[in-house]
């Protein structure tokens, strides 16, 4: 088997799904032990399959929430650069000296 | 993982027990053999047994025979040793089937072994990919990887053709590559 045959056959995906007939599987194994691209494809697919199996079994709820949604809940440092937040901050700073002084006087 | 180009110097160093070459040999073929054995849906502890036996046997053959005829095809040599180990193991497993049933491992053991196989980075990337998938596709993967069901039955339940499983994996692989490229 050469690389073009492997691509045409979708050999990497079929291999990890156990869909290659035994003879073809052995040919593909002989090929990817010496093919950088196929080895790289398989390494990625093997990682996806192994990690998916682990994650879907171990933390089924965690993977239901897209990661970027989780991130959006927590404000980062750069949130302060957003116009609405920045305006509020500037307004608060403008008022701060007076407020601070009055608190001191009150004490 | 980069495909390694083998030569006589490498094979001679391995035969002579040079520590850094031995470390490379174990790390490199440990990964490739792991992929090969997991594709046969062997339980994690069997993957580990066959892998260890293959690596040990390859070094033993090198030391016994003094080297290999085609050092540049050293990968093919290790591949053929693994196939032999698999054939022998299959006969042994068949013979000791009743013993295996008595020593049935717990699901916790399987999860521990799987956890040890993947890096934290891979786990994070795959979590991200799963999180971005449509819930139906995620459920399809769950059924495919975790439920002990026939693939045709799973496809019928989800109303998809068998090719869709490959498409789903292909897309996940592209996304996986892209997340690594993005850093």
- For the record, give the distance between the C-alpha atoms at the N and C termini of chain A, rounded to a whole number: 86 Å
The largest β sheet of chain B comes out as: none
Beta-strand share of residues of chain B:
under 5%
Which structural class should the secondary elements of chain A be placed in? mainly alpha
Strand content of chain A: under 5%
> Runs of chain A with pLDDT <50, length 5+?
66-82, 95-107
Helical coverage of chain B, percent range: over 70%
Oligomer: heterodimer
Instruction: Determine the mean pLDDT of chain A.
Output: 73
* The CATH superfamily title of the largest domain in chain B: RNA polymerase sigma factor, region 2, helix turn helix motif
CATH architecture of the largest domain in chain B: Orthogonal Bundle
Please report the total strand number of chain B as a whole number.
0
Task: Encode the helix/strand succession of chain B as letters.
Answer: HHHHHHHHHH
Write structural notes for this entry.
- The complex is a heterodimer of chains A (107) and B (183).
- Chain A is an all-alpha fold and 107 residues long.
- Chain A has two domains: 1-73; 75-107, no CATH class.
- Helix content of chain A is 72%, strand content 0%.
- Chain A contains six helices and no strands.
- Chain A is elongated, with a radius of gyration of 29 Å.
- Residues 66-82 and 95-107 of chain A have low confidence and may be disordered.
- Chain B is an all-alpha fold.
- Helix content of chain B is 78%, strand content 0%.
- The chains are: A mainly alpha (107), B mainly alpha (183).
Layout of helices and strands, plus pairs?
The complex is a heterodimer of chains A (107) and B (183).
Chain A lengths: L2 H6 L2 H6 L5 H11 L3 H23 L8 H7 L9 H24 L1
Chain B lengths: L7 H8 L3 H20 L5 H22 L8 H22 L1 H6 L4 H11 L2 H13 L2 H12 L4 H8 L3 H21 L1
Helix pairs in contact in B: 2-3, 3-4, 8-9
